[in-house]
Amino acid sequence: MSGAIHQSAARGFALVPEVYERGRPMYPFAAVRRLVRELRIKPESRALDLAAGTGKLTRLLAQLGADVVAVEPVDEMRQRLVETIPGVRALPGTAEAIPLEDESMDAVTVGQAFHWFDGDAALAEIHRVLRPGTRLGLIWNVKDVSVDWVRLLAEIIEPYRGSAPSVASGAWKEAFERTELFTAIERARFAFVHATDMGTVVARVTSISFIAALDPVVREQVVAQVRELVATHPETRGREVFPLRYRTGVYWCDRI
Question: Given phi > 0 = left and psi -120 to 50 = alpha, else beta, which region is 53?
Fold first, then answer.
């Protein structure tokens, strides 16, 4: 599987860079600040943002003045990143085959993506490109399904997942439990609210790779269910703008 990308990600994300950019929230400031602090990223640091997508995390790292390299396998997502952050070096590549030299990075970040990786192969590659004494950091924004309408939204989405991995399953942690290349992962959690509207919720759902890859007729049926939920649920009905609650997990570990 080295150098591969999951079929769902390759097909789905290629279709939706603009929708992804609209529907996905930025990371909360407190979470990014913690990530940067734990990874000891400074203006002179060389940082790799791996599986960078449209650059949601990349742009925040670049704003710190760090020398950021973005690696993203999906051409359409990478092109959107380049258009948004033209000063960042963006390369094609995967977590399992990173196109960088040995011990060339001061930090590696992964936003919304490690659960897509072949964990063992990815950790070996990340270890290779990191300098000794540096850190790997992961971050995810995850919808808060303790909120009733968000739980119902998830129930619309999940039947279509198929073989696409889920961060919520926790399966991604198994590679960290096996590895001797990194220390045990540490974690911090944050909560935030994304002020959203009907169009943004639809974009959030249709930016999911396995939803984007559906037959257009089926995808429109999913969109219709989402619109019906938002239009009728007591927490969102009749409101032009309403809260979509997220929980953000920040994880880090040391390269051994």
Answer: left
